[in-house]
Design goal:
Radius of gyration: 23 Å
Shape: globular
Structural class: mainly alpha
Strand content: under 5%
Number of helices: 20
Strand order of the largest sheet: 1-2
Helix content: over 70%
Largest sheet: 2 strands, antiparallel
Number of strands: 2
């Protein structure tokens, strides 16, 4: 009995000492509660109260995060890991979450929906808590809870404003596909726990348990686990939901899906790969080739299928799939200690997608459609918007003088350095396919200026429609300027992430 009391006392002390490490997530969770109460109590007096409270909650979490600069610590018996990767990735997530929140607010204002807007803001913040937790854990149980938290919130956001059959279909397809992937992942985790008795994939005891487990069953288990991670990252073959959901969901929700969950999922995958690549565990080498093959297939499928798309949101969906391949390429560099390259690419990927979807949202509001044919000849009517949109496309391709060029150059340089040291043909194929798909992407991103500036309009009936200046318009232009600044002076972004 005395030993039991001592153990309980020690555990309570450890929990109390670990709580400060979770203060960023707690700040966002408190912001979620205040947003929920604001939706119930104050929105009837000031309809934007929930939006203001949610923005303040995200900003508060960001300020709290700054207090963890330079800290390296673990807490809750190893469930949490606070380090530089967690610090910078959470900063990117909070910034992207704030911009996504503004997207939601603009869409709610434009659509003038009768449903309480505060519900959606609070759901977004709840997903943010799960996203932050994903970046600070090396424990499968906590990671799975965080993934489910993000997934459920995403299902709600996709279906919240379903106004037609296409949007309802997108919500149902997303929920069903996501639920199936989560169930498969949970089954894989249960097998791994049975083999190891431990779910902390960074601990030596966990790795030793994996080394003694039957290789065939263990491979099946990890393939099941990668199903859940693949759903969040939408790499091949788990990308099938992305085009329909991106097209059917409201543009503000599509913006969120294309950016924030991918950042958190890639950080989790990076920690997993780093913990395996430093050991003699047989699956570490298998994971390396798994990454190479999946990255190659994802880049090829995403970019080749994007060539056939005429809808901007579907095109961006396949573009997002293609960029996931580059994210997986950056992971290989992270396994060799190149953390800055991964973070730089994640930051630029987020900025590029936010800018692109800002312009798509502005055009969709003005013309009620996201088909490229709708924007035929509109470049001379909206020169600033389509010029900035074209620059964003150039950055997504990876051409100078944009930040996308620097980001891809760093990834290519990192992989090429690995090839020089090892002469591994897998790395050479990654370089070849990465360069080839970047050229392929030129053809579908070029459709934006092609339709806007080089193709004449067939009918003038909507020529008088002009997007009004909105906050999304300003955000898109501001992010485009940032992409040029970081492309010309990449040391500015590099200094932030170092």
């Amino acid at each position: 009995m005395e030993e039991f009391v001592t153990t309980i006392s020690t555990r309570i002390d450890e929990i109390l000492n670990s709580i400060p490490l979770l203060k960023v997530e707690l700040a966002l969770a408190i912001g979620f509660l205040f947003t929920l109460f604001s939706s119930l109590l104050f929105d009837r007096f000031f309809k934007h109260a929930s939006f203001v409270v949610s923005c303040l909650g995200i900003l508060t979490a960001f300020v709290v995060l700054l207090g963890q600069y330079g800290i390296t610590a673990t807490g809750f018996s190893g469930l949490l890991l606070i380090d530089s990767l967690a610090f910078y990735s959470r900063g990117i997530i909070l910034f992207t979450l704030l911009v996504a929140n503004v997207f939601l607010w603009q869409e709610i204002v434009d659509l003038k929906k009768e449903k309480r807007a505060g519900d959606l803001y609070s759901v977004l913040m709840a997903s943010g808590v799960g996203l932050l937790v994903l970046t600070v854990t090396t424990h499968w149980l906590l990671a799975f809870i965080a993934i489910e938290m993000v997934s459920i919130c995403s299902y709600i956001m996709v279906g919240y404003f379903s106004a037609n059959n296409k949007q309802a279909e997108a919500a149902v397809k997303y929920a069903l596909f996501g639920s199936a992937c989560s169930a498969v992942m949970l089954y894989g985790l249960s097998l791994i726990y049975g083999f190891t008795g431990n779910l902390d994939f960074a601990q030596q005891s966990h790795l030793q348990g994996l080394m003694t487990a039957p290789n065939a069953m263990l491979s099946i288990s990890f393939l099941f686990v990668f199903t859940g991670i693949g759903f969040k990252l939408s790499f091949v073959p788990f990308h099938l939901w992305a085009p329909d959901v991106y097209q059917g969901a409201p543009t503000s929700v599509t913006t969120y899906l294309a950016t924030v969950p991918k950042v958190a999922a890639i950080i989790l995958f990076a920690r997993l790969y780093a913990s395996w690549s430093s050991t003699g565990f047989y699956f570490s080498e298998l994971t390396y080739y798994f990454l190479c093959v999946v990255a190659i297939l994802t880049m090829l499928v995403g970019n080749l299928v994007a060539l056939r798309q005429t809808d901007l949101k579907r095109m961006m969906a396949y573009s997002s799939v293609g960029h996931t391949g580059f994210l997986l390429m950056a992971l290989i560099g992270y396994g060799k200690g190149q953390q800055d390259v991964l973070l730089f690419y994640i930051l630029m990927y987020s900025l590029m997608n936010l800018a692109a979807f800002a312009f798509i949202a502005v055009l969709e509001k003005a013309y009620g459609d996201t088909n490229l044919e709708t924007y035929r000849g509109k470049g001379f009517l909206l020169p600033v918007l389509f010029t900035c949109f074209s620059i964003t496309g150039i950055s997504l391709i990876g051409l100078p003088p944009t930040a996308g060029f620097v980001a891809k150059l760093l990834v290519f340089s990192d992989v090429f350095g690995g090839y020089q040291n090892s002469s591994d043909p897998a790395l050479l194929w990654l370089l070849i396919v990465g360069a080839l798909t970047s050229v392929i992407s030129l053809f579908y991103y070029f459709k934006i200026p092609l339709y806007a500036f080089l193709r004449t309009k067939r009918s003038p009936e909507k020529e008088q429609n002009r997007p009004v200046l909105s906050i999304l318009y300003v955000i898109g232009i501001g992010l485009t300027i940032l992409l040029l600044v970081f492309g010309l002076f990449p040391s500015l972004a590099w200094a932030i992430l170092s």
